[in-house]
Structure formats: structure tokens, C-alpha cells
Amino acid sequence: MEPGIKVISTPGHTNEDASLLIETAEGNYALTHLWWWPNCYPEEDPLAEDPHGIKKSRELVLGQDDWIVPGHGAAFKSLHRKPVGASKEQKKLSK
Fold first, then answer.
1. What pTM was computed for the model?
2. Can you list the domains of the chain with their CATH numbers?
3. Beta-carbon neighbour count of residue 20 at 10 Å?
């Protein structure tokens, strides 16, 4: 695997789902089927094999990526990213 590219297990929609994470100069991207459409839709996946698992997988992806490329639509900016290793003040400002 190339530096800056990794595949992580993101079960929920199906137990076999994985997401591709790519680090670029413009930010971190997640190519994933955790959402079908831009802007985190659907909020609740009616076809999820594991509703609890998809919630955990979504939190994992949103916590580390700047851009989300969903299964069926255009990329969208992740407004939920939390700074890693940030101070309490920085974390408050990112909410």
C-alpha cells in the first residue's frame, strides 16, 4: 500500500464494508458506503445489517476525514471532524 492510503473495516451497512482513506495536500478523503448521498444522508440506513456498527463506523470516519465521498453522490465536506491531539479550547471551537 502507498503512503497516505489505507483501507479500514467499516461494518454496518454490510458486515463486509470497508472504506478507503486517502491523505492529500487538500485534506483527508474517505471513499465509503457509510452514506449513500452527500451531507450524511441517509441519517438512518434502513438497510443496515448492523445499525450499532454503522454508527461506530461513521464516527470513526467523520473523526478523521475532511471530505467524504459517499456511495452514490458528490463529495462533501465533513463538518464533524474533531482535531486529533487538540487542546480543549481547540476542540470547543471545532464544535
1. 0.76
2. 5-93 (3.60.15.10)
3. 14
